[in-house]
Design brief:
Largest sheet: 4 strands, mixed
CATH class: Alpha Beta
Number of domains: 1
CATH architecture: Roll
Helix content: 10-25%
CATH topology: 2,3-Dihydroxybiphenyl 1,2-Dioxygenase, domain 1
Strand order of the largest sheet: 1-4-3-2
CATH superfamily: 2,3-Dihydroxybiphenyl 1,2-Dioxygenase, domain 1
Structural class: alpha/beta
Distance between the termini: 27 Å
Order of helices and strands: EHEEEEHEEE
C-alpha cells in the first residue's frame, strides 16, 4: 500500500538550504522557488519555505543507514556533528548520531542493531 515516507522540513531560505545540503551533506537539490526536493541515494528530504522566522519551529527527521560508522566518520570529518551528536547506542536498539542543518532542523542518522 505505502511505497515511501518523506520528511518535510521548514527552511527560511530555499537556495541557502539547498547549498547546505549539497555542499555539506552530499545531497542533490531541486529548487521550486518556495519548495525543494533533496535526494541522496535512496534518501529524500523535502523543504518548504517559511517566510516568517518567528513562526518557524525546527523539525526533525530520522534517516536510516546501513553503515552508520562510515556515515558518522564522513560527517564528523566535516565538522557537522551537533554538540552532543556523538555516535552512541540508543535505548531503542539503534546506533545513532545527530546533525543540525542550517535551519536548526535535527537530522538523526541511525542504524538498527
Amino acid at each position: 500500500m505505502f511505497s515511501k515516507a518523506v520528511p518535510l522540513l521548514p527552511a527560511q531560505n530555499i537556495r541557502a538550504s539547498i547549498d547546505f545540503y549539497e555542499a555539506r551533506l552530499g545531497f542533490r537539490g531541486l529548487n521550486f522557488g518556495n519548495y525543494a526536493i533533496l535526494t541522496l541515494n535512496n534518501a529524500e528530504i523535502h523543504l518548504y519555505l517559511v517566510t516568517d522566522p518567528l513562526t518557524q519551529k525546527p523539525a526533525s527527521c530520522l534517516l536510516l543507514v546501513n553503515d552508520i560508522e562510515d556515515v558518522y566518520t564522513h560527517f564528523s570529518t566535516r565538522g557537522l556533528l551537533q554538540k552532543n551528536g556523538m555516535l552512541k547506542d540508543s535505548r531503542l536498539g539503534m546506533r545513532e548520531f545527530f546533525i543540525t542543518d542550517n535551519n536548526n532542523n535535527l537530522l538523526r542518522f541511525a542504524q538498527r542493531k
